[in-house]
Amino acid sequence: DGGITQSPKYLFRKEGQNVTLSCEQNLNHDAMYWYRQDPGQGLRLIYYSQIVNDFQKGDIAEGYSVSREKKESFPLTVTSAQKNPTAFYLCASSHTRGAGIQPQHFGDGTRLSIL
Amino acid sequence: AQSVTQLDSHVSVSEGTPVLLRCNYSSSYSPSLFWYVQHPNKGLQLLLKYTSAATLVKGINGFEAEFKKSETSFHLTKPSAHMSDAAEYFCVVTFMEYGNKLVFGAGTILRVKS
Lengths: 115, 114
Fold this sequence. Notes:
Chain A is built from no helices and 11 strands. Chain A is an all-beta fold.
């Protein structure tokens, strides 16, 4: 079955450490997205990519980095510069072509906590 | 600027009674609107979408929503709640000029009592 796989499901970060969250999709979608979810705040966009080797900052990109070397993969690195990284991170993907706005499909998320 | 307001942070209903989750949006352009559902520690699942076709949109699991431009609303309804409907629901807006970037409401947690 096609879908989006995020790993790991739970992740712990030490002070000063960078960690990388994995996101893989086999839906043949061109666009991929990273969101951060905090209680009572909905989802906020961190980074997005419409095509391989290209990505743009979202609303809260500071302290995060991404790469898009393959269509199927869009890893997110939470750097030590992100001072409040504890959150639930969601990856999504969508088509970019076709009539109208294409809905985004979501993975099951990674919960990041600070040790 | 575009924004979404979900008018209730929590809604509690009894099993078998109607569900109403309210959403108002603000957008300078013709919007596309979505409702997503999230069960605990899971990703978001698309319930339904409005993209300028019929104003009454039917989704999965018996949910539907009506787009009312004059009221800038997109409320989600279901005639009869089921225990499995207990989850968090997000109203989301976007528009073509914004490049498919989504703007999320803060969410409404639906509790279903037996």
